[in-house]
Amino acid sequence: MLQYALLHICGYKLSMDDIKAFRSIDSITPGHPEAHDTDGIEVTTGPLGQGFSNAVGLAIAQHHSSAEFNKPGFELINNYTYTFLGDGCMMEGVASEAASLAGHLQLGNLIAIYDDNHISIDGDTNCAFTEDVAMRFKAYGWHVETVDDGDHDLEAIEAAIKKCQAVKDKPSMIKLRTTIGYGSLHQGTGGVHGSALKKDDITQLKKKFGFNPEETFVVPQEVYDLYHKKGAEGAAKEKEWEQLLEKYAGSHKAEAADLKRRLTGDLPEGWEKNLPVYSPSDSAVASRKLSEIVLTKIHQAIPELVGGSADLTGSNLTRWKDAVDFQPPSLGIGDWSGRYIRYGVREHAMGAIMNGLAAYGTILPYGGTFLNFVSYAAGAVRLSALSQVRVIWVATHDSIGLGEDGPTHQPIETLAHFRALPNCMVWRPADGNETSAAYYIALTSKHTPSIIALSRQNLPHLENSTLSNAIKGGYVVHETGKADITLVSTGSEVGICVDAVKYLKEKHSITARVVSIPCFEVFDAQSKEYRLSVLPDGTPSLSVEVMSTMGWERYTHEQFGLNRFGASGAYKDVYKVCHIYIFIFQY
Amino acid sequence: MLQYALLHICGYKLSMDDIKAFRSIDSITPGHPEAHDTDGIEVTTGPLGQGFSNAVGLAIAQHHSSAEFNKPGFELINNYTYTFLGDGCMMEGVASEAASLAGHLQLGNLIAIYDDNHISIDGDTNCAFTEDVAMRFKAYGWHVETVDDGDHDLEAIEAAIKKCQAVKDKPSMIKLRTTIGYGSLHQGTGGVHGSALKKDDITQLKKKFGFNPEETFVVPQEVYDLYHKKGAEGAAKEKEWEQLLEKYAGSHKAEAADLKRRLTGDLPEGWEKNLPVYSPSDSAVASRKLSEIVLTKIHQAIPELVGGSADLTGSNLTRWKDAVDFQPPSLGIGDWSGRYIRYGVREHAMGAIMNGLAAYGTILPYGGTFLNFVSYAAGAVRLSALSQVRVIWVATHDSIGLGEDGPTHQPIETLAHFRALPNCMVWRPADGNETSAAYYIALTSKHTPSIIALSRQNLPHLENSTLSNAIKGGYVVHETGKADITLVSTGSEVGICVDAVKYLKEKHSITARVVSIPCFEVFDAQSKEYRLSVLPDGTPSLSVEVMSTMGWERYTHEQFGLNRFGASGAYKDVYKVCHIYIFIFQY
């Protein structure tokens, strides 16, 4: 509500009627702020720890973009990023991860204001949260200021902010000791966290602060005047910035055009010509390697592409060869302009930071980890989908095919999980052209995050696999005549199905069609006619995917999969023990 | 491999052949240790941060159980819990959450040994992890010791452990500065993290440490002798403890019987008589409230039940009225014997700690949060399922029915996610008797975790809902004659379907059967005959669940659900905007 109230009094498109509609249906003031619903809301938050981590992403984007675009005389990109967080955020692991990375990266323009009110939903934080937060943030490498009386001492708050602004080599945190529900009869208790105040309480509170208790939804004119003045100052600064940008465009034409283009979300013209194309005679390659080839070929054409990995670079193959790391220059191992982020083993923060990077507008982020560990970041992936940001997960080691690491690392439920998430595209390409297609759709879907599941093991290139087929999300990979049965599959199992067809023909005189559905979401969006041409009514069908069969019933009569955990061993042995080879009749 | 090697030389059931079979199929030495595969492996770890957080759970269990069972002269339960962790664990948020809680709880018997080798998979940790870990742990309230030369200085290591053992009011962490791959030509680099050493490297390493380079899989007899002696000492201590337990049984008969029973995993005889029973005339109640009633009624009968919430106690209704908090007595707000844990806003740590609590053997843990935020703990839930531990999630606010908090808090994909996870029971009870059934099966399933999804809003009690029907996972709730159509539903939508039936009959002369499937996993395990009696072949069928329809295709011809995000508003308005009322023909 604080955000909505401030947007209202500053003159954003948020009326008093919108305020009155708080938490009611079809309002632009939902219970938790959503970026695409409301002007001036920059990221979708509410789930604890996400907003703070988004801010770390916004600050990374600012540091990176300033290094890319600022020129002598043109300090085009130099904003501070401010974020508010409470005790709940402070307890969440995702925020701890993001804070540790922010400290490492020395994000001097990031200022976090910690509403230290000693109250969370269960009551006094002394029941669960007694750590020394200031000391913890100092340990992360942050500058820390403390304001003892956050309820009244505006001078101290301003002084603290100014000190933080002056610290350029560290992110800053202001520990603001406040009283929750300040002015209520129940101030300083858990009772005022989420419940509306009772009538008598509101009456005394309004009186205390000089309001007429009979009036509701009133803002004194002098308050409007003050904040509208602030709003006008902001608008003037925006205009000034736009003029600076136009001047910049005169002397730095290419950079200005690039910046303007990035802010539209469009990719540079012709970028897609860099996507690799394969034919069935090309040798088998792991799709994680195919992904690396895509990134290598397109990164020059798409300068906003900024990647990284949660400490699995050599396994995810997410770093093109001559990439520069995004690092504070003082460390001597990279630069602010670097386009490769070392996220550390922080999957959840990586997801939430990518949401912030995408929200900034100048960056198209991707991040790598094993498919199984995208689950660690489920909270952030959900917000990518809900807030409609373009974020790409390079999710390698996508099945029991990863072999020796065993069931703790082999996803079973993961694809079903994210396929069930609205506005999230889950790709599991079967070969080179499908991998190019996955990137093509992921990169051009401005308002949708994507998870690209990639194999550790080598995969052959398939006969009908083309970019134009694969971008439909599903198509016929193999057919030798009128089919008695349709085999439907994804990723590493498509090639196995193609082999099975040959066996079925030779040994059982059965003619089979093989369909690849690299992306449910995209295939489901095709015309019914097209879908029926791929999966004809009446032909018996079987799906084959070496993980949970959940969701496959929509396409096929029978499902072959793995509704149990995998095993540790050489991948062909794991396939055997999981009966994949029995499926294909002793292939 | 270190764990397996130590188990082998200490004389556990793990032979040299098992060692040779490391990471191969059907071995008891999988790539990451699994509790149920291998004697002496106490928790399933591998996914980073989980093992450390399990240890916090084991230490909580020890502190709690010692308060419950120890008597003057009988220090029956007094073990230390040791855990090893590396830089990866240190970066994961789940470990940060668990460390903060452990510090708050003053878990004096927990000793963590941090292998501070400055290397993670991406190379030198200075690329992503430069925080002051010792300072961070001090901020959490831990005692910290540092050993500078962890490669050689055994005396310093022993001294540090002894110092930590003597600190009784804080958990302890030993920061052990080591060299990864010590002795290898590539020691101290990322190259030795996960890859096998090359032949020449192994040769020089064996020579360096006095081994014959030609011999493989050899343990010198004096090493066996030393460790077998340690093993024998351990066995003697175990025997001593068993004798102490027998002596204890003489003077504390009931406590000893209780302890022995708990260790079998069986519940006390007759506990189930406390489960509440309802009839359709009872007034409508929210299933989160029904869950509270169950906990209130059974907690005395099942003393091993230890609950908690991730800072949503008043919303999850997870705390029976006179519960005592599990807290260090010095805080004055609880006791070590308390059975209610204030987890703070730390869902992921709560999940991993519950795995440790369950593994200890004397505790049956449950924990509450909103269903949507069980996803934050996906990594831990997966390990509950894989390691076959009995852990119960009280997952309230289970749908768009939560209303005002909006789409950031309304689960859509969550049930599909966990239904796709093997060995995980997902319950969504529709009323009182189904809630009792969910608890009945969850509590008696010794080797399976459960997630019980519960409503915020009131639900009527249904006519055929009985414990014996509901424990089958699916049954006919309502029928008035030969059905033209079958409506299949769960939770809060079952009552809506029953109302729809009346409307269908009156306005369209259509006879409908209503089926409730509170738990897919349990229903799928029933005989085919029973399943067909509930969902007859041939009758047209429609599923109704206000979230992702994924997975429902297995039961019904058509699916009604919500393959989009929800909305913020009064819950009946949200239902309208999501067309739930259109579904039931303007109900």
From TrEMBL, chains A, B:
Record bears the keyword Metal-binding: yes
Pfam family, one: Transketolase_C_1
Cofactor(s) the protein requires to work: Mg(2+); Co(2+); thiamine diphosphate
The organism's place on the tree of life at top rank: Eukaryota
Name of this chain's protein: transketolase
Binding site for thiamine diphosphate: 46-48, 88, 117, 193, 373
Catalytic activity entry: D-sedoheptulose 7-phosphate + D-glyceraldehyde 3-phosphate = aldehydo-D-ribose 5-phosphate + D-xylulose 5-phosphate
A biological process from GO: pentose-phosphate shunt
Binding-site residues for substrate, renumbered to this chain: 193, 288, 315, 397, 405, 409, 456
Presence of the UniProt keyword Metal-binding in the record: yes
NCBIfam families: tktlase_bact
Family to which the UniProt record says this protein belongs: Belongs to the transketolase family.
